[in-house]
Amino acid sequence: MSMHPNPDVPARRRDALVAFLCGGLVAVMVGLSFAAVPFYSWFCRTTGFGGTPLAAKTAPTQTSDRTITVRFDSNVAAGLPWRFEPERRSIDVKLGQVVTVYYAVTNEAGRTTSGQAGYNVSPPTVGAYFEKVNCFCFTEQTMKPGEKRDMAVVFYVDPKLAADSELDGLRLVTLSYTFYPVQAPASPGSMAGERSEGTVAQAKSGKPDRI
Predict the structure, then answer these.
(1) Residue extents of the structural domains in the chain
(2) Which end of the chain has fewer beta carbons closer than 10 Å to its terminal beta carbon, N or C?
(3) What is the DSSP string of 31-67?
């Protein structure tokens, strides 16, 4: 009885090779996308692209009589058990006026959690004039169970905005923050210490330790 080669074998090998190459390409593209995130963040903060406020090193030397309303928006992404809201919803500011506002953050979980905020302004064209002196954004924030914290934002709107004819009709700017969860794996030792501290606190007070 003669044996004939199976014509399907080369085809299966070819399909497997194509699948392998496609999988490798996808993995490379995903890796590049993650590597691009820090660069994109830096680029936006440096240029104001996409409505990202600029990071100012010094306060302005002059102000303008023109006044605009800045509205404050707050959001929390899925997976982060935090309550996050501004102390006020809006404020009227003069161009060049340095303003400090606070956002109240509460960790509503029964465990320590971490988050990191991103932000932008709208309309996006204002990003080149919205100068952030200090804020909590792009810095990982770790909060204990029940912890409450006031986070400050210091900013001003560059008086140069008054010279931009495309923004002559601008009356309202929205500053929006969104907190995203940060998954930080804890070491077995730190987890044991955290459980031990919680046990001692409960033994003393008869209820979970809350800050």
Answers:
(1) 50-181
(2) N
(3) HHHHHHHHHHHHHHHHH-GGGPPEE-SS--S---S-E
